[in-house]
Each structure stands twice: as C-alpha cells, then as structure tokens.
Amino acid sequence: MRKMFVGLLVAMLLAGAMAWLIRSDAGYVLIQFHGYTLESSVWVALLLLSLGLAVLWIGVQVVSGLLALLGAAMGVPAKGPVARLRAFWGAQRNRAANRGVIEFYQGRWRQALRHLSRTANRDDSPLVYQLLAARSAEELGDRDLAEGFLQLAERNDGARDIAMVVRAEMAARQGNDEEALRQIDALGPDASSHPSAVRVQVELLARCGQWKRVNERIPELRKHRLMSTPALDQLEERACGELLNQASAQTDNPLDHLRKCWQSFNGRMRSDTSMLVRYAGYLNRLGAGAEAERLLLDVLRTDVRDEILHAWGMSPSEFPEKQLAFGEKLLAKMPENPALLLALGRISARNRLWGKARDYLKASAARGLEEDAGRVLTTLPAH
To answer: Which pTM value belongs to this model?
Structure first.
C-alpha cells in the first residue's frame, strides 16, 4: 500500500512538471521534404516519435515471430538480421537470469529480483526463474509480487503443486503455520506424490501439535528417505510420547484411550524401552499399576536395564509376594545393582516389610541412588 501511494505521488509530480513545461514553452518543429511541410510543437513531435518507435518495435516482433513459425513449420533454420536480433536479446535475457541465480544464492535479493524479473515475467520462462523470483520478492517483503510470480509459475505444466508447496514454505517462514498447513492440505492425496510436500507437512503438523497425523506420515518419510534415520527415530518417539500424553489426559475414560493409543503404535515403538517405561508410568497414574507390572515383568525376563527396573519397582502388582520373590531371584544374579535394590525397597514397603525395605533402600543409597532411596525412606513408618 505504501509503495502504491509513493508511486501515485511520483506520477502526479511528473505529470505536473510535464504540464508546466508544456505550458511554459511548447517549442516549434518544422520539417520540409520534397515540397511537403510538417509543423508541430516539440511535445507533439516527441509523442509521435514515441508512438512510431513503439509501432516499429511491435511490427518487428510480429514479423520475427511469424518468420520463426514459418521457418519451424518448413524445417528451415532462422536466418538473417531478425533472427540474429532475437538471438541477441535471448542471450541477454539468459545472462541476466544466470546473474540473478548467482545473486539469489549470494543473498542479494534486490539485485537477484531485478535480473530474474527480466526472464521470469515471460510466459515461456523456465519455472526455476519464476520460483527464485518469487523467493527474492518474499525476502524483500513484497508478498504481492511473490504471489504474482507464483501465479506465472502455475502456468507451467505440472507446476501447480510445486507452487502450492512454495506458498506453504513462505507462509511457514512468516510464522503463519495454520495457513501453511492449509496450503499443503489443499493438495489432498497428491501430497503423497511430492516427497518435499510430505516433509513440509510433517514439520507443520508437529509445530501445530497434530501428532496423530505426524505419526501417520512417518512411514512416507522413511520410504523416501527425506530425513536421516536418527532424526526420524527421534521424531517418531516424540510423536508417540505426545500421543500417550494426550490419551492419558482425556476426560472420558482415559485408560481406554491410552490402551488404544498404545496398540496403534508399530512394533518398534512398543518394544522401545523408553516408550514402554513411559506407557507404564501413565498406566500407574491412571490406577492400572498391575497391568504395567505385568507388561514390565515380561520384558524383565530378557532385559534388566535400570530404567525398566525402576519402572517395575514403581508398579504395584496383584501378587506383591510373587513380585518380591522374582526381584530377589534377580538380586542373586546382580547383587550390586542399585536400581534393583531401590525397586526391592519399594516392593518390600508395599508388602509392609519395613525392616527389609530399609535394608534394600540403604544399600541402594550406598551404591549411588542416595537421593531416590532417601525419598522413599522418608515415607516409611518410624521404627
């Protein structure tokens, strides 16, 4: 809006200056040729000259185009001064466009836009120049101009989806994630045929907190290898963790939501130790500690990592005596494990074996878990 106002103001000033010049001195032009005389003011002569040059230029373009079409139809290569002139201007445009690409990647947005515009404004321009011109305009804050170049780009065959992805990326850079996501979603099923669109969509979905859709898109990211394996694993773990948290926070039967959410995960996630421990923690919080204990017990038969032992010790069993007996059987194999000693201290306390609980907790504290063991010790009744 500000640019439009400045442009109108400049145009009005120029018009006023021109009117003043015409009124102050119209000038005089006299042309005599073979008995013919032409008289005119300077301004009318300049106007007629400009119109004549414009008509001449249009005529050259029309004739050049017709000759090129005729030559192409007859299989005759273009020759002569008109063809050389067209080749010269084509080379000039290509040099300007190439210079614009270089300036674009140097971050010189204004210079890049000036050079790219010479080619991007043409209907037969390569798509890449139009997209780079749109990005340059965006960097300069001129969103209307950027949109104009994208509309030009859409005229290319198959470029509509690409333009929509670029629009989404531009909206995301401007902090408008909802608009960016709307642009990607508008692709519908076609988004799957554009791997870059899938990646942009997943990033937007994560920022918007739509973790269920993120989790559904991860297989496509893996298929097209759009992210490194560690990054994808981290994203999948975060998505599943957020889904467990959302399910456990449901007001209507959260335990059922939590179980269904867990069953929807793939085998890799359900066997992931950190995810399993997190799921067990939510089960405990919702009063399904016995279910969590059974789940963890199955894992402990083959995997006795500290984090699993810790979660198992926090989970009350339907059969606390059997839980204690299993833990003490493990202790015979790993008597110095502080996580196991802490778990046995908690289990002993649930069995009201206060003396045994103190012994296990003190042994755990002596082996490095002083803070955790001390916290449990404070909950035990006095001697």
So the answer is: 0.65
Structural domains in the chain (count)? 1
Express each pLDDT in 223-244 by its tens digit. Answer: 888 889 999 999 999 999 999 9
CATH of the domain at 139: 1.25.40.10
3-state SS, one letter per residue, for the chain: CHHHHHHHHHHHHHHHHHHHHHHHCCCCEEEEECCEEEEECHHHHHHHHHHHHHHHHHHHHHHHHHHHHHHHHHCCCCCHHHHHHHHHHHHHHHHHHHHHHHHHHCCCHHHHHHHHHHHHCCCCCCHHHHHHHHHHHHHCCCHHHHHHHHHHHCCCCCCHHHHHHHHHHHHHHCCCHHHHHHHHHCCHHHHHHCHHHHHHHHHHHHHCCCHHHHHHHHHHHHHHCCCCHHHHHHHHHHHHHHHHHHHHCCCCCHHHHHHHHHHHCCHHHHCCHHHHHHHHHHHHHCCCHHHHHHHHHHHHCCCCCHHHHHHHHHCCCCCHHHHHHHHHHHHHHCCCCHHHHHHHHHHHHHCCCHHHHHHHHHHHHHCCCHHHHHHHHCCCCCC
Q: Which range of residues forms the domain containing residue 135?
A: 86-190
